[in-house]
């Protein structure tokens, strides 16, 4: 009996691997999407909400919208890989001036200065995660 269960689990896993919609279900809520619908020239820019077997639920301009799965040709998503904000801090130390001279001529203690910069990088490019499977050939 356990062997039969293992075969069943392997079959279910194989089917999930063949199902391109399974990848869509794994996208985190809030991810940027570009959804290409059938017979449309421009993609829909939206945020991911969730995917059901029948619909893709997205947020467009703060309104939740359901797009039927059969109307979708392609879905691109923007991967979130770390933070786009980079900070850099530099510290420089200056040695004391030990050359002889009149009083008050130079500092006899070491000094230091610190500078920080913050930069925001560009967003990563969109990657295709789903393409509508082509229909089976007609006989």
**CATH first level: which class?**
Mainly Beta
What percent of residues adopt helix (DSSP H or I)? 10-25%
Bulk shape: rod-shaped
Report the biggest beta sheet as strand number plus sense, adding barrel if it closes.
6 strands, antiparallel
Low-pLDDT stretches are none
Number of separate domains: 1
User: Order of strands in the sheet with the most strands?
Assistant: 4-3-2-1-5-8
Mean of all residue-level pLDDT scores: 81
Beta-strand segment tally? 8
The whole-angstrom Rg is 29 Å
Q: Tell me the distance between the termini.
A: 40 Å
Helix-strand blueprint:
Layout: H1 2-18, H2 20-25, E1 32-37, E2 44-51, E3 55-60, E4 63-68, E5 72-77, E6 85-94, E7 111-120, E8 127-131
Antiparallel strand pairs: 1-2, 1-5, 2-3, 3-4, 5-8, 6-7
